[in-house]
């Protein structure tokens, strides 16, 4: 199917790079087309299958329980995608929802091929001509004299016959009917038109000729290409901002979870208190005499702090405290890694020494067997 507009990347199968067809969801929540998933798993061997996205294992014995149909809203989003009719090359210009395309082709499309109404005729005919009887006989165009089948004469007269003339409804010029579409699109001076600056505020409307004359002196029309570029850039920036906002929300959620883990059991450290005190001293205003003003908290503020209000006066203090806690956690992780590294080094040395001792014993045994074999050979030679 040919889609009218770009499809959301979240609805694209990672295997075939096309919108999902009968989407199936694995236990790891990754979704693929049903046929793509079967073909991918068909080439794998063993009792487990690997997810094409996360490379996670899936037990083949419980494969049916490990897969399920995608949620209904995903299927609904796929069914709402607009596609062009499969008969668009024949002339159908309909844009239909993907979930309704089968009914459109089977019941409503004028360019679907049906069996001829004549029982003795074996050729097909378009639906829009099916009620006119059998049209599979040769005839001649009354305008140009070209010979063709009766079923093709209608399309010929509408689209290709250069001797069939029609009058333009706007300028009254007479021209070949196949050229009418191009004439209305770019040539006819009397076609109703709007100023190219209309999306940006210019209200001028008229014929194509008057609009072309107006555009020369219209400031908004002159700026329209630049404004269009800016609008497209703003839209791209807005999309990028939305992506960054989602990432920021995820980061803040993870930071909050980390903060809850860090402060669930451990009270604030002296370093954190010192950093907050330093920040408070930085934010304290200077008096006219050059001395630093001291803000003495009153009884109400002390009561507010004692009731459990957060000890962060400014966002900078909050960030500094988080930075200090993360630094302490990083230091603890570095110490743990160093300890594990030393343990691993000692274990490797011990294993190496043991392997060396085993090799020494093996060499001694080999030398003993060599000496015994030499003694046996010498005894045999003396006999």
TrEMBL record:
SUPFAM superfamilies: RING/U-box, TRAF domain-like. Residues 156-202 form the TRAF-type domain. Residues 316-343 form a coiled coil. The keyword DNA-binding does not apply. Keywords: Coiled coil, Metal-binding, Zinc, Zinc-finger. Residues 13-55 form the RING-type domain. GO terms for molecular function: zinc ion binding. The keyword Metal-binding applies. A zinc finger (TRAF-type) spans 156-202. PANTHER family: TNF RECEPTOR ASSOCIATED FACTOR (PTHR10131), TNF RECEPTOR-ASSOCIATED FACTOR 4 (PTHR10131:SF94). This is TRAF-type zinc finger protein. It comes from Eremomyces bilateralis CBS 781.70.
């Amino acid at each position: 199917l040919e889609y009218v507009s770009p499809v959301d990347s979240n609805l694209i199968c990672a295997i075939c790079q096309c919108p999902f067809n009968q989407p199936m969801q694995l236990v790891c929540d990754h979704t693929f087309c049903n046929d793509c998933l079967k073909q991918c798993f068909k080439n794998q061997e063993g009792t487990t299958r690997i997810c094409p996205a996360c490379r996670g294992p899936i037990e083949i014995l419980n494969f049916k329980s490990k897969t399920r149909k995608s949620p209904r809203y995903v299927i609904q989003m796929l069914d709402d995608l607009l596609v062009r009719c499969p008969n668009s090359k024949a002339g159908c210009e309909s844009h239909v929802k993907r979930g309704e395309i089968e009914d459109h082709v089977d019941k409503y499309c004028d360019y679907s091929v049906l069996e001829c109404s004549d029982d003795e005729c074996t050729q097909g005919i378009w639906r829009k001509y099916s009620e006119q009887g059998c049209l599979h006989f040769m005839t001649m165009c009354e305008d140009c004299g070209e010979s063709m089948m009766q079923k093709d004469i209608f399309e010929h007269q509408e689209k290709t016959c250069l001797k069939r003339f029609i009058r333009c409804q706007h300028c009254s010029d007479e021209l070949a009917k196949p050229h009418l579409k191009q004439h209305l699109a770019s040539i006819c001076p009397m076609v109703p038109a709007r100023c190219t600056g209309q999306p940006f505020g210019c209200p001028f409307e008229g014929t194509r000729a008057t609009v072309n004359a107006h555009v020369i002196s219209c400031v908004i029309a002159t700026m329209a290409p630049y404004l269009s570029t800016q609008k497209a850039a703003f839209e791209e920036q807005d999309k990028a901002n939305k992506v960054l906002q989602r990432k920021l929300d995820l980061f803040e959620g993870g930071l909050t979870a980390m903060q809850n883990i860090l402060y669930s059991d451990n009270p604030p450290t002296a370093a954190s208190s010192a950093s907050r005190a330093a920040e408070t001293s930085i934010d304290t205003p200077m008096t006219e005499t050059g001395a630093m003003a001291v803000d003495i908290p009153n009884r109400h503020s002390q009561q507010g702090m004692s009731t459990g209000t957060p000890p962060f006066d400014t966002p900078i203090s909050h960030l500094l405290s988080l930075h200090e806690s993360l630094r302490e956690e990083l230091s603890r992780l570095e110490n743990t890694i160093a300890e594990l590294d030393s343990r691993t080094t000692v274990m490797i040395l011990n294993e190496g020494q043991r392997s060396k001792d085993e090799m020494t014993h093996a060499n001694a045994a080999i030398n003993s067997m060599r000496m015994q074999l030499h003694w046996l050979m010498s005894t045999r030679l003396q006999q």
